[in-house]
Design brief:
427 residues, mainly alpha, 18 helices, 67% helix
């Protein structure tokens, strides 16, 4: 329990300290706004309240993107990688950060393996974006800085970008394709990355998370495409596919990059297409990755449990139903695994609902409130225009707590809350 408490408290303390440079920059209306942006960065959400983003200094932009890059790997993972040789409570702190995969038998070596994967991709991805940026007319230094920043935002599925127009700023199909590749790969489970690196490539199509991601993405694409076609938003098939594909992949990987204006979701896409994006954001991508949301593994477990229950109803009572599922290794589904998955999914649904009700309370439209609440709780970062420096302070605080809880996947937050209650009661 101490490991879980340390994990959740460390994230909150790091947010307060990280907000100081933001606040001193003069680009925030209040310290709450600075806290909001830092929590958004650490939790790889990507919603922001910074003012005059297009004219901030390179140093502040670098700081913003370093926060989201570090947050994607995890603050505890950073500590385990660079500050510890070993600790009896290391694994509990690691789990408290929303991760439970061991790439290697030792948790310290697991943390270092995560950074090895991330830094290797940093070099390759930044190089590809640098060359593309130079090809579309950016100066060598500017294209290099933008390449590093955009990679950090994409790989960490954080959604921070150096310009207010996000990746729409570049007006480049090649840039968009590279971004999609980076944030889709960044949304994969680190254990899956390690399996591929060590030669077990069959995991790519056997793993329950990859199957779940494919199924739920297809469902979201059908809903979103239907909504866009009903309203005739894009008459050109290429434009329809390009815009829908990018926003939906960005939402499902909880990246938050966008190639449309935020209010376009409301004014052009309409409720049905927005619902498709909301579904994608709510589900998210892989566990033990930089992504947020329910996670593919939990959706796969719940669906597998449904199949198991149907088989139990159909087969004779004397039959022993054994349902298996595959994630790195083949496992037998048990009730405790299903309960754990349902607990986290219901917790996400709870914070999505709370955020939506708070938005409606402050007078915002229900669909707008739902969209941005799911985006904050799932650590996505797409916005339909509701999140802005002018939003009520109460909503900013609620969103900060939602981003924090969603990134740590609740268990360490529950432990910290219980610890505080125990202190207040003198126990």
């Amino acid at each position: 329990s101490h490991g879980l408490v340390i994990a959740s408290f460390t994230w909150f303390a790091a947010t307060v300290l990280g907000a100081i440079p933001h606040w001193l920059s003069g680009h925030f209306g209040s310290f709450i706004d600075a806290l909001f942006d830092v929590m958004s960065g650490y939790t790889t959400t990507g919603l922001y309240l910074i003012q005059d983003l297009d004219h901030i200094s390179n140093s502040l932009n670098m700081w913003r993107h370093l926060l989201t890059y570090v947050g994607g790997q995890g603050i505890i993972v950073v500590a385990l990688t660079f500050l510890f040789r070993g600790s009896a409570g290391a694994y509990k702190m690691y789990v408290g950060e929303g991760k439970d995969e061991r790439l290697l038998p030792n948790v310290i070596r697991t943390a270092r393996a995560i950074w090895l994967v991330s830094l290797a991709y940093l070099v390759a991805g930044s190089l590809a974006l640098w060359m593309t940026g130079a090809a579309i007319g950016q100066s060598p230094l500017r294209s290099l800085l933008h390449a590093v920043w955009v990679f950090m935002g994409a790989w960490s599925t954080g959604g921070f970008a150096p310009q207010s127009y996000n990746t729409f700023y570049y007006h480049s199909l090649a840039y968009e394709i590279i971004c999609v590749i980076i944030f889709v790969v960044g949304s994969f489970n680190f254990a899956l990355h390690w399996s591929l690196w060590t030669g077990r490539r069959s995991e790519l199509w056997k793993d329950i998370e990859m199957i779940s991601f494919t199924v739920t993405l297809t469902m979201a694409m059908i809903i979103t495409t239907t909504g866009l076609m009903q309203l005739g938003v894009y008459t050109d098939t290429v434009a329809l596919f390009r815009k829908m594909f990018y926003q939906l992949f960005s939402g499902h990987t909880t990246t938050g990059f966008s190639t449309i204006y935020s209010r376009t979701f409301v004014r052009q896409w309409g409720p049905l297409a927005m619902l498709g994006v909301i579904l994608a954001m709510a589900i998210g991508a892989s566990a033990c990755s930089t992504a947020g949301g329910f996670k593919g593994i939990r959706m796969g477990i719940i669906f597998t449990a449904m199949i198991q229950e149907v088989r139990r109803m159909i087969l004779p009572e004397s039959s022993r139903v054994v349902q298996k599922w595959h994630h790195i290794t083949t496992r037998v589904l048990d009730d405790s695994t299903v309960r754990a998955a349902m607990l986290i999914v219901l917790s996400y649904i709870a914070i999505y609902s709370i955020g939506t009700l708070v938005g409606v309370f402050y007078g915002y439209d229900f669909m707008d409130s739902l969209f941005d609440a799911v985006s904050a709780g799932s650590n996505t970062g797409l916005s339909c225009g509701l999140t802005s420096p002018s939003m009520p302070t109460g909503m900013k605080i609620v969103y900060i707590l939602m981003m924090w809880a969603g990134r740590l996947e609740f268990l360490s937050i529950f432990a910290l809350t219980g610890y505080v209650v125990a202190l207040v009661r003198g126990r």
